[in-house]
Write a structure and sequence with these properties.
single chain, alpha/beta, five-stranded parallel sheet
């Protein structure tokens, strides 16, 4: 008898989980549900934002996910019952033997007063697309890249934004007329890796980018064009590029699964407190950064457990919180940091300086997953 697996969310975690289960050759009946019609790599949003490509060009349609034992449904989830592994959508009710929550984190724009009216978020495709038309018009004044809360997806991304904005303004010959500030609630740009943080801090200093660590944007005053930090400091701005607060989607919070905005899980197995319910990726509190590579690794651990169960075995796979994050340093340069959060007594981050090899590795990172998840 086949095992029915219901996967909510077709991001890194959901796509990898479905791929592994399909490739296992075991009798899985997998249903993958997402409200969107296409997947977009997170790093592609910066490409859209700075005019390197278009929003349409970076979309990977879910209709291209064709895998044995997997069906993909475009539906909006309206209710989740973790006690019974039953999910209600705008199209009906789905029941399963195993439920995997991989819905990512939503953006709480309203959680930062004034952000919707006075700023521009660049963490959604729509936000990046909107900024692609705004940034070319910015030629003088103060630009602030501001993070409104932690944790947030892809911790290096705001640093990348600051460096790429510098490149954009320099290319147009207006950099001397502009000031760039970067406000981040973390103590350093990449806390697990002092070397990576030092390299980014040096890059900011060389480009006259003001870095303000340990502070978050608590509000914007659109009438005065002022950003208010959590210590009361005010910074006037002419362009605000914001990373909004994150939290689990409303439907997950309504299910009763969350604590402090996210789903708590066993960091080694990704199991929730509900039987046969797992959570992977940004929606979960698993002791790792919120980034696609960690969602992907978590999905493989869950897949191994489900395969072992079907075979009457015990899985030895554990979530180690390892992954590589690529970092745009501007001027076409890409560095990286190898993160290890859970396998040892302390979290570590090994820095690799920008190189042509890392540019190629980043490109392969995207192309290999595109081929694996979207059948070419």
């Amino acid at each position: 008898m086949s095992k029915r697996v219901l996967v909510l969310g077709a991001g890194f975690g959901g796509l990898e989980l479905c791929s592994v289960l399909s490739e296992s050759g075991e009798d899985f009946d997998v249903t993958l549900i997402d409200k969107s019609d296409a997947f977009v790599f997170g790093f592609s949003k910066l490409d859209v934002m700075f005019g390197r490509t278009t929003a349409e060009a970076v979309k990977l349609p879910y209709r291209d996910v064709v895998k044995p034992g997997v069906r993909v449904l475009r539906e909006t989830i309206t209710a989740i019952d973790p006690e019974t592994c039953r999910v209600t959508t705008d199209a009906g009710v789905h029941e399963a033997d195993v439920l995997v929550i991989a819905l990512g984190a939503d953006y709480d724009i309203a959680g930062t007063p004034g952000l919707a009216e006075g700023g521009n978020e660049f963490y959604s495709v729509a936000g990046a697309q909107r900024l692609a038309g705004i940034i070319p018009t910015f030629s003088s004044g103060h630009a602030i890249i501001g993070v409104c809360g932690a944790p947030f997806k892809c911790p290096p991304a705001p640093s990348e934004c600051a460096l790429l904005l510098h490149d954009e303004l320099t290319a147009r010959g207006v950099r001397d007329d502009c000031q760039i500030s970067f406000v981040i609630p973390l103590g350093t740009p990449v806390p697990p890796s002092p070397e990576t943080s030092a390299a980014l801090q040096q890059a900011f200093a060389e480009r006259d980018i003001t870095l303000i660590c340990g502070r978050r944007i608590s509000a914007l005053d659109p009438a005065r064009s002022v950003a208010i930090l959590d210590d009361g400091t005010e910074l006037a701005f002419d362009l605000f590029l914001g990373v909004p607060k994150h939290r689990a989607p409303d439907v997950v919070i309504a299910s009763g699964m969350t604590e402090d905005g996210y789903v708590p899980v066993d960091s080694a197995t990704l199991q929730t407190r509900f039987a046969d319910v797992y959570a992977v990726g940004d929606v979960a509190t698993a002791g790792v950064p919120k980034a696609g590579i960690f969602a992907e690794g978590a999905a493989r651990v869950v897949a191994a457990a489900l395969i072992a169960q079907l075979r009457g075995e015990q899985s030895s796979e554990r979530h180690l919180g390892r992954g590589t994050c690529y970092i745009e340093f501007g001027q076409g340069n890409v560095g990286s940091v190898d993160i290890d959060f859970l396998s040892g007594p302390e979290r570590t981050g090994v820095y690799h300086a920008p190189s042509a090899a890392l540019v190629a590795q980043k490109e392969h990172f995207g192309s290999s997953r595109r081929a694996r998840w979207f059948n070419g």
